[in-house]
Amino acid sequence: MDGHVRLLREVAASTVTISAEIPASHPSAAVLGTARAGTGTVVDATGTILTVNYIVLGAKRVQVTDTAGNVYPAQLVAQDFGTGVAALSMEPGRVAPLQCADSHSIGAGQDVFLLASVGGADRRSACGFVVSTDPFDAYWEYSLERAIWVSTINPGLGGAPLCDTHGRMLGVVSLNLGAIGRATLAIPAEHFFEHAEELRRYGRRVSRPTRAWLGMFCYALPDRTVVAGLVPGAPGEASGLVVGDIIVRVDEQQVTGRLQLYEAIWRHKPGETIELKVFRGGRIEKVSITGGDAEDFFSA
């Protein structure tokens, strides 16, 4: 028991509470708000903090709080819209880094735990097991070919480290999903570590081919995908897409599933025209949209 407590304390000592302030004018403010809080993990001796992107998207001022209650300024270093991870930096030496491991070292049934901030210096932990490493697609235009699905519910703020039984970080906790047997989803940490040099240098993954973005939220229903929301000012809204539209075709290709829809859109580059056919008001309507770039849109 003492060993478990010691391990939790060691992991907790490498975490920080992130407090981010976002201007009301930022495109993400309408959806995510202007004051956000999350968990971050210091992952190297230079003071790099790994977290989930939605916490710091558009942030102009960021502070972090360690488990002793000390507050430090932090700077946004990199954002990866494709995978959803983000990196901050703080003064080196203030918080001890956490050892990390490749998430491919784990599989279904293996024990894991997460340790999340609940605000300020307070932390909470939860134990569970890996349910699967199946793919994931979200209600926004996002997917992971390999996600870490775990059985435990995150007891605190997003961005927490998911760890193996040795206390090594495997992933970044992103979402509480509430599905039976699949309570929490984590982004594999190697999405940052395998591209850390590029992310630090450019602030984004410039080597990844660009792909079109419409700025929509989608419900996945049996054999259909329904527009559930639109980002204000994004290409979808600007081109006349409407909440409630059922998207049936992209460039004359029939689409029935949400991931299939995303992949059809992503075959286009920003600036290209995407032809949608939607079922609206009892008939089929055509909507032509010039694809945008999510990174450029949210960096404005």
Task: State the gist of this model.
With 300 residues, the protein is of the alpha+beta class.
Order of strands in the sheet with most strands: 1-2-3-6-5-4
The first-to-last residue Cα distance is: 50 Å
Q: How many β-strand stretches?
A: 20
Average pLDDT, all residues: 94
Basic shape: globular
* SSE arrangement, N to C: HEHEEHEEEEEEEEEEEHHEEHEEHEEH
List segments where confidence is low: pLDDT < 50 over at least 5 consecutive residues: none
Query: What count of structural domains?
Result: 3
CATH superfamily of the largest domain: Trypsin-like serine proteases
Structural class: alpha+beta
Q: Biggest sheet, open or closed, and with what strands and sense?
A: 6 strands, antiparallel, barrel
Q: What count of helical segments does DSSP give?
A: 8
- Oligomer class: single chain
Give the topology.
Layout: H1 2-12, E1 15-21, H2 29-32, E2 35-42, E3 48-52, H3 53-56, E4 61-65, E5 71-80, E6 85-89, E7 111-119, E8 122-132, E9 136-137, E10 143-144, E11 148-150, E12 161-163, E13 169-179, E14 182-188, H4 190-193, H5 196-202, E15 216-221, E16 224-230, H6 235-238, E17 246-250, E18 253-254, H7 258-266, E19 273-280, E20 283-290, H8 294-299
Antiparallel strand pairs: 1-2, 1-4, 2-3, 3-6, 4-5, 5-6, 7-8, 7-12, 8-11, 9-10, 11-14, 12-13, 13-14, 15-16, 16-17, 17-18, 17-19, 19-20
Q: Can you give a write-up of this model?
A:
- The structure is a single chain.
- The chain has helices at 2-12, 29-32, 53-56, 190-193, 196-202, 235-238, 258-266, 294-299, and strands spanning 15-21, 35-42, 48-52, 61-65, 71-80, 85-89, 111-119, 122-132, 136-137, 143-144, 148-150, 161-163, 169-179, 182-188, 216-221, 224-230, 246-250, 253-254, 273-280, 283-290.
- By secondary structure, it is α+β, with helices and mostly antiparallel strands.
- The strands form four sheets. Strands 1-2-3-6-5-4 form a six-stranded antiparallel β-barrel.
- The model has no long low-confidence stretch (mean pLDDT 94).
